[in-house]
Amino acid sequence: MALEVIGAGFGRTGTASLREALEHLGFVKCHHMFSLGEQRNLIRAWHDVALKGARNWDEIFEGYRATVDWPSTAFYKELMDYYPDARVVLTVRDPDSWYGSTSETIYAIYTTMPGWLRRLPPLATGFEMIRATIWQGQFQGRFDDPEAAKAIFLKHVEDVKANVPPHRLLVYHVREGWGPLCEFLGVPVPGNKPFPHVNERAEMKRDLVILRLLGKLPFVILAAVLAWLGISLLL
Fold this sequence. Notes:
- Helix content is 58%, strand content 7%.
- The chain is α/β, with parallel strands linked by helices.
- It has one domain: Rossmann fold (3-Layer(aba) Sandwich).
- The longest helix is centred in the C-terminal third of the chain and has 34 residues.
- The termini are far apart.
């Protein structure tokens, strides 16, 4: 099975909504960063792409008809050449809104994850891949600088427009709904089916609370051990 749709938009540009929409239109399955949690073997495969230069695209996308979001969006040009019949959807968003959303969710999770947790497999493998592909890769270690990050975001949009032939490219904001997407893909608009609007921000913020608690866990354990030792010495 070859990819038929390649998402070129950065994460937090509506990629989760696009994934759900594509699968409803029959492009099942659609690869997304979420897929790495659903298929753990993909973590190692993408790690090998990012850090070892492997390009096992058919292996990674076996059983998938579409892909959106990171990590694949970082390799959209290679994927576009490897799958010459695939169409490319570039999801876009206001750069200020995008930066605020990204910094409060996926970047906050990346920076908040405790060091001891980062070293546990398979989290260590996934963390290394994400760092190499996204934060040190596409953002060159400059995401903490809002203006630099937004400039990279806008440059990516222009690069995609310049690199993808017009007949293969849809520049798309998910608020446009089914119409442009269905016309571009040559499929009928679903009747009586609202366009999906997936917003993972609340769930990610819950994850952040958990990560912050986990970050304090070693100190809690140490305090408990010291307290126990202190009590023991008094006995």
